[in-house]
What we know:
The complex is a heterodimer.
Chain A: H1 10-19, H2 21-29, H3 31-37, H4 42-50, H5 52-64
Chain B: E1 13-18, H1 29-37, E2 40-44, H2 48-57, E3 62-63, H3 74-90, E4 94-99, H4 108-119, E5 124-126, H5 132-140, H6 144-147, E6 149-153, H7 154-160, E7 169-173, H8 188-204, E8 209-214, E9 224-229, E10 243-246, H9 256-270
Parallel strand pairs in B: 1-4, 1-5, 2-3, 2-4, 6-7
Antiparallel strand pairs in B: 7-10, 8-9, 8-10
Helix pairs in contact in B: 3-4
Amino acid sequence: MTAVAPEPRLSDFYLRLADDPSLLEQYERDPEAALAAAGMTDPQINAVHDGSDAVRSVLESELASEPGLRRLVTEPRMMTQGDGGPEDEDGDDDDDGDEPGDG
Amino acid sequence: MAEAPPEHIRRGSLTVVGTGIDAVSQLTPAARGAIEGAEEIFYLLADPVAARRIESLNPRASSLDHLYGPAKARRETYAQIVETIVGTALGGARVCLVVYGHPGVFAVSGHEAIKRVRAAGLPARMLPAVSALDCLIADLGVDPATSGLQTYEATYYFLRRPPVDLHATLVLLQVGMLGETIGAATEAVTVRFRLLLDHLAALYGPGREAVLYEASPYPGTAAAVERFALGVSEIPDLSVMSTLCVTGAGRPPVDPEARQAFELSERRRRRP
């Protein structure tokens, strides 16, 4: 029986792009050709065209099936509150108490 | 990855870096160096590709995402993030905090951690990076020099109603978390967003162009850009990462006293 090669992951392609300036250059010139040359499937290529929600959905399903990588799929988080509401009169984003942080 | 120095000469430090919005093509060489050279590295990233990249650059990297909770106050989370970072730096490690975007723009924990590490007499620094606002300027073709630029966190703007220059571009970040003090958005955000748009339509008059914008974290993939007319068009769907931009229009007239002062200074310059 012939072993079936695993489908290439889009996240692997992105990591290669990050470290390979010539691949990035090729991708900037013709994204579709670069993706196809890297063995990406039509759904993966279409997702890159369709927008970041589509890409995220592809990435999430790729990583969900990988026990070691599943933990990397998290919700986007806010890193500031901006305003604590009417009680936050000093506007410094803290609790006005002893609690550190939030400065 | 750098080896830790012997215990007797260990001296903690902190470097706070950002990946940019697209960690594949916007991570700066300086930020990369700080990540690779860190002994302890913590990250808060919005996307799994970014997380994979940081872990591949430094296998010690660990996520702080577990400190968030859907119903947990974000202030509590931010305090715990700062405690984790500062405690590790004070323990003698060369620490790096990696966040998405610019680490000092709409990101409170890095600023606070730097203050506290410096107060303890240890070195701490922040490296600049590409923020969502930078991406918006590029994607929407906004030049702050043309009519000015006002930027607020959406909840701050909604509650405080700072004076707005109606000619300038107005950018409200975090509209997707409008009024939320917890880790996840609730259904109330949509109601609040409608109130915000009603306020803006009254302020600018109906028909002023607005854009609901979301930068793309992936190279080669376009940003999400939805243009609509305030008070006229149907309200577009929000996402957690949405930014609202009311585009600039025209310029205020020149102030006569300011013009006179300029002319006077010019005459003085030419006087022999």
